[in-house]
From TrEMBL:
The lineage of its organism: Bacteria, Pseudomonadati, Pseudomonadota, Gammaproteobacteria, Oceanospirillales. It comes from the Bacteria. Belongs to the cyclic nucleotide phosphodiesterase class-III family. PANTHER family: CYCLIC NUCLEOTIDE PHOSPHODIESTERASE CBUA0032-RELATED, PHOSPHOHYDROLASE. It comes from Vreelandella gomseomensis. Residues 1-183 form the Calcineurin-like phosphoesterase domain. The keyword Repeat does not apply. InterPro entries: Calcineurin-like_PHP, CNP_phosphodiesterase-III, Metallo-depent_PP-like. This is Metallophosphoesterase.
Amino acid sequence: MRLVQITDAHLYADKQARSRAGVPWQHLERVLEAVIAERPDFVVLTGDVSQDETAASYALAMEAMSPLTCPWTWLAGNHDQPSLMQAEHPLVDEVDLSAWRLLLLHTPVAGEPYGRLGPEALAALSTTLATDERPTLIAMHHPPVDVGAAWMDAIGLQDREAFWQVVGACPQVKVIVFGHVHQAYAERHLAGEHEVAVYGCPAISDQFMPGAEQFMIDEASRPGYRVLDLKGGQWETWLERVSV
């Protein structure tokens, strides 16, 4: 099972609109060309699909994703409008990946850059995990760990301690992928008595400078995506960068 993560397209209604370091529509086209060449079985887009939060930007995302020959899903980021996303393509909580399951968590807080799950969602996650012991991959927008950039760490998942308490009780959770950070990231996080692999992903749009105290664009980095090959209860993962 080959899953590809893409993230943070930050599209505008205008295909020619520029971000700080390029044209998001062009970046998305190049990234998806490369993703299709990977022959994935499933693609997940982990939020911030839109920058201007318009219906037209989500219609453009659908246009870009249409050449994919495999199933795909998306989740909302802090720049997104879930109702507009739902009108174009379903927002789902879970995907059956045969030997694995994929859980998608909704972390945005309306009007805020940071994320939060909240007690109800955390209780639901605990219940959901208790129903199935298959190896589990969790996808979310906001990082549940510090990534080492002070300004970004301040706008990550605010109730991460409660989140890790839930995950720590469920050793079937093997991998967590997130967006939001616009940079590569990887760590093994101790949750209870087991380790969980936690991965960030380069953005489709602008890249952020790792380790920065304040917001800073990394103009030397390129858009990218993450490949995960899921094999039994094991996995291999790597990043690919795309020239634009």
